């Protein structure tokens, strides 16, 4: 477990912007201390204001005792963090199972309704606690590459202008293989109109975007990162299987574990025009051993959707809560009075998109690891 841990529907994608608990058994929980890392957000030329971070340098604070205990361990005893996570997940799994067993044993008794209600409440409590654990694991993976999460935008926008420094592009791109990075750069170009080889002047050019649109781009990028993680691992596995058996049947693809999002298909097919010309005429062997994007083009629509769908309800809720904390409540984001137009640089937009893609990739890893100890609810 320790080794493993180290390693909503999608809204329509806008045009390029340029054209626009349970009780915890962990006993080593000291008092909170603020992390020393700071992400400076500059509010225009000459401005001295900067964002204030939560104790975790993240927009979403832990909601449960489990999350608060683990955040304390992460800040004060990071070397014990994965051990604490393993213990917490085991306890949550045991408590949920105990409640289910009591409910089943009392099914024929006059206390059946009571125990059924207790089991439902325990299920809800454990789900929220597990979402906290997932979020902290994702935060830890960002800290490994020395990238703090962008805090609440409401604290970072001054005079309707947003700038995020430092950009951290290199750190956020360093976690991917070259073929995955190529697809991510194409995604950045598609959603914000910034080319991979853009000049410094282009990067720091100003543009305008509404907060609601920015939130949609961020959610789409999380799902795209999740999708790329899924298909890249699938591609690697299928390639290794193909080496063992040249006669591997196409149906073996569907025997692999699937996972994907409603609406993500439009995001993937946003790149189809460019990819198709490179992949025309490729046979299955070439697609399996060739570029990842050619491999993706070999998917039928059903497989494409399955590979992009979030596998667990916990992940759906986590993305929703994280994005609401970052951009504001759904009701606020739809309000004309609050959904202001933000002036920002393409560099800052790229920073947010790269963070979101990494968030999706880390979410896939976290889901995989947690599910081996605490069974997540199927989405």
Description:
The protein is mostly helical and 379 residues long. The chain has one domain. Helices cover 57% and strands 4% of the residues. The protein has 17 helices and 5 strands. It has helices at residues 2-6, 65-76, 81-105, 112-144, 169-173, 178-192, 200-203, 211-244, 252-255, 264-268, 272-279, 284-289, 292-297, 301-308, 313-327, 330-333, 346-371; strands spanning 40-41, 161-162, 164-165, 206-210, 341-345. α2 (65-76) runs antiparallel to α3 (81-105), α4 (112-144) crosses α15 (313-327) and α4 (112-144) packs across α17. The longest helix is centred in the middle third of the chain and has 34 residues, at 211-244. The chain is globular and about 70 Å long. The two termini are 23 Å apart. The relative contact order is 0.17. The model is unreliable at 1-15, 18-55, 247-265 and 271-276 (pLDDT under 50).
Q: How many strand units?
A: 5
Element order, helices and strands?
HEHHHEEHHHEHHHHHHHHHEH
Class by helix and strand content? mainly alpha
Tally of discrete structural domains? 1
Cross-sheet strand order for the largest sheet: 2-5-4
Shape: globular
Number of helices: 17
Rg computed from alpha carbons, rounded to a whole number of angstroms? 22 Å
Q: Helical proportion?
A: 55-70%
Uncertain spans: 1-15, 18-55, 247-265, 271-276
Q: Termini distance? A: 23 Å
Q: Tell me about the biggest sheet?
A: 3 strands, mixed
On the 0 to 100 scale, the average pLDDT is: 77
Beta-strand residue percentage = under 5%
């Amino acid at each position: 477990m320790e080794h493993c841990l180290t390693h909503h529907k999608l809204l329509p994608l806008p045009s390029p912007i340029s054209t626009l608990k349970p009780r915890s058994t962990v006993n080593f929980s000291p008092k909170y201390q603020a992390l020393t890392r700071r992400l400076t957000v500059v509010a225009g030329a000459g401005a001295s204001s900067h964002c204030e971070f939560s104790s975790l340098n993240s927009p979403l604070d832990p909601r449960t005792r489990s999350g608060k205990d683990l955040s304390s361990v992460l800040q004060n005893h990071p070397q014990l963090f994965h051990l604490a996570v393993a213990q917490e997940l085991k306890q949550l799994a045991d408590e949920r199972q105990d409640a289910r067993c009591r409910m089943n044993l009392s099914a024929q008794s006059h206390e059946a309704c009571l125990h059924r209600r207790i089991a439902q409440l325990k299920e809800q409590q454990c789900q929220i606690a597990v979402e906290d654990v997932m979020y902290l694991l994702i935060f830890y993976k960002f800290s490994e590459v020395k990238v703090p999460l962008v805090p609440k935008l409401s604290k970072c926008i001054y005079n309707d202008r947003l700038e995020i420094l430092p950009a951290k592009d290199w750190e956020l791109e360093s976690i991917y293989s070259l073929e995955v990075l190529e697809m991510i750069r194409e995604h950045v170009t598609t959603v914000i109109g910034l080319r991979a080889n853009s000049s410094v002047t282009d990067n720091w050019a100003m543009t305008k975007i509404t907060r609601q649109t920015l939130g949609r781009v961020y959610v789409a990028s999380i799902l795209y990162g999740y999708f790329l993680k899924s298909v890249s691992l699938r591609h690697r596995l299928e390639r290794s299987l193909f080496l063992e058996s040249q006669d591997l049947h196409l149906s073996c693809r569907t025997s692999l574990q699937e996972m994907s999002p409603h609406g993500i298909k439009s995001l993937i097919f946003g790149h189809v025009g460019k990819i198709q010309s490179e992949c025309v005429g490729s046979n299955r062997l070439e697609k399996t051993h060739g570029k990842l994007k050619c491999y993706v083009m070999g998917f039928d629509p059903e497989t494409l959707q399955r590979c992009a769908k979030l596998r667990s309800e916990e992940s759906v809720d986590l993305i929703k809560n994280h994005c609401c904390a970052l951009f504001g409540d759904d009701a606020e984001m739809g309000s004309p009075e609050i959904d202001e137009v933000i002036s920002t640089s393409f560099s800052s937009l790229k920073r947010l998109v790269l963070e979101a893609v990494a968030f999706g990739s880390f979410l896939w890893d976290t889901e995989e690891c947690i599910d081996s100890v605490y069974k997540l609810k199927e989405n």
